[in-house]
Specification:
Length: 346
């Protein structure tokens, strides 16, 4: 288990402030944040590359705050792999073992085993400058695993890969984690979080603003920033009132019927864009909230379109390509949208 206790670090005008995290053995833990939020700095503090100003780093009950990088037994993989261009694949993976003065038999067996696990056995004699992006990333991961690290640290490992290679490396990382390897993964892409992590922390301007179990964070965003960063565009502040035993959410002149479990008073609510529907005569009775509006903008996606409308507050909805063709969606088209009360969350 890794514990970060009141970690603080300032470089120039930027500061990491009061970082407190617990990463349990076997976790796939993701640090999620925009560029410049402090993700990589925190990763380098954990690894020992950057010294902190104050706080403690505790690994399995032992404080390692001042331990040099070589005595922490962490493996790190950067987004640009940082492979040695003058060495072969085998030699790159073997490098940390040679630094530890392991014997030749141990080095050979370990490298061959890792090459097989990362599916690059056929590349052992190749120079790393001749590898594809996905192959180079596999070599970097194998090298980081060579010393059997307590924790594998990944700094944007999927950023420079195309969609097919991302899928391959994601599958590899999932397999490694399932074997018990603890992983801390830094990324700006929340979609990577969904497919890999069991726990996440969201960092903004050097501060952890929310952390916890993946599903808890995704279903209970504590702020607009967290919601928007997780792909939730329909997030609003307002108040819950009750009239004739029906609860309503009011914001900026708009009123939504909500579920009975909503507390009265000031509140933030949200709903996903795929829980907003275009209303027709067949589905009209399914919705407790129906609004007339005009389509303001349309943004194509790989499997459909995202529609932007405004009912006094901006509302985003998603429809798939089949429905888009059926409805002949276009800008300035007047539509009715429906939202079920049970799809509105707080």
């Amino acid at each position: 288990m890794l514990e970060l206790v009141n970690i603080n670090k300032s470089i120039g005008k930027f500061s990491l402030s009061n970082i407190n995290l617990v990463i349990n053995k076997g976790d796939y833990y993701t640090l999620l944040g925009k560029s410049g939020a402090g993700k990589t700095m925190l990763l380098e503090i954990i690894s020992g590359i950057v010294k902190l100003d104050s706080g403690k780093i505790i690994l399995n009950g032992n404080e390692i705050t001042i331990n040099p990088i070589q005595n922490r037994n962490f493996g790190i993989v950067y987004q640009n792999q940082a492979l040695f261009p003058h060495l072969t694949v085998f030699e790159n993976i073997a490098y940390p073992l040679k630094c530890r003065k392991e014997n030749k038999t141990t080095i050979k067996n370990t490298v061959n085993s890792l090459a097989e696990e990362t599916e690059i056995s056929q590349l052992s004699d190749r120079n790393v400058t001749d590898l594809s992006g996905g192959e180079a990333q596999r070599v970097a991961i194998a090298r980081a695993l060579a010393t059997k690290p307590e924790i594998l640290l990944l700094d944007e490992p999927l950023s420079f890969l195309d969609i097919n290679l991302k899928h391959d490396i994601t599958s590899l990382l999932r397999k490694i984690n399932k074997k018990g390897q603890t992983i801390i993964h830094v990324t700006h892409n929340y979609k990577e979080v969904v497919s890999l992590s069991n726990r996440i922390a969201i960092i903004e301007n050097g501060t952890i603003i929310q952390d916890g179990i993946l599903n808890d964070v995704f279903h209970n965003p504590k702020s607009r920033f967290v919601a928007n960063f997780l792909g939730i565009t329909n997030y609003f502040s307002g108040k819950i009132i009750e009239n004739n035993n029906i609860k309503y959410f009011e914001t900026n002149g708009c009123k939504f019927i909500v579920s009975d479990n909503f507390p009265l008073g000031e509140i933030n609510v949200w709903f996903r864009n795929n829980n907003v529907y275009i209303v027709n005569e067949e589905n009209r009775n399914n919705f407790s909230n129906i609004f007339k509006c005009k389509i303001i903008d349309i943004e194509p996606t790989s499997k459909g379109i995202e529609i932007y409308t405004n009912i006094g507050i901006p509302i985003y909805l998603y429809i798939n390509n089949d429905l888009n063709k059926q409805l002949a969606i276009m800008q300035d088209l007047e539509i009715e949208i429906g939202i079920k009360s049970e799809d509105i969350c707080f």
